[in-house]
Amino acid sequence: MEALADSKERCEQIVFDRPDALTSRGYTYCPGCGHGTIHRLVAELIDEFGLKDRTVGMASVGCSVFSYWFFDCDFISCAHGRAMANATGVKRAHPDAFVFTYQGDGDLASIGMAETIHAANRGELITVIFVNNAIYGMTGGQMAPTTLENMVTTTSPLGRDPLLVGHPIRVVEMLSLLEGVAFAARASVSSAKNTLKAKALMKKAFRAQLEKKGFGIIEILSNCNTNWNKSPIEANEWIDAEMVKVFPLGVYKDVFAGEKGKKDE
Fold it and tell me: Strands 181-188 and 250-254, how do they pair?
């Protein structure tokens, strides 16, 4: 009987639960979208670093506009493209706060591009979570700065023509050239393996701020199965087959490179 009781106790042991930094509110994202997974990675790291009581997040305009509903910490709802400007002000006024922005490609790489470049160049001590799904998801699937060449969207029904509208913008490659950037990397949540790598890289983006090294950004390739007109599985396979050709995964700048005793990757 004692062995049976021990077995029952082990079976009832919780091995997977909601992070404290997430609320119990249900997501508003489309089923199969990667935002939920990325939110969880951010929340897990907030818990692991013990940051919940001093974290201030910046909600952008886009699919993640209601992210302040899902994180159990202070949050500011920012005007379109101004998340990094708001983050700069909060961090400078409250240097002990952990400040992060959560932005999509439309918010960060389109209307917010000026804020992005200058915040990175100044080396603001903030952490940027940049979700790239190569499209404007919330407003119906229009072409974004990150839309792939020949990719069909509602505003490029014949496919993106680089002769007319230019090429996809590779954000982390561009920002990695700036002196103020301490960490810049691109990851994906298209599979469990890639998701684990994404968390390890996101951890370094957190550390860049916590250890006062400089601006930290992680770009995460995520699907928009609804506007891509694919099933969630097909959309994740498309990331691995097509998006990574244009947006290669990896680390583009790492102030921690060469350090010993830490196995984040």
Answer: antiparallel
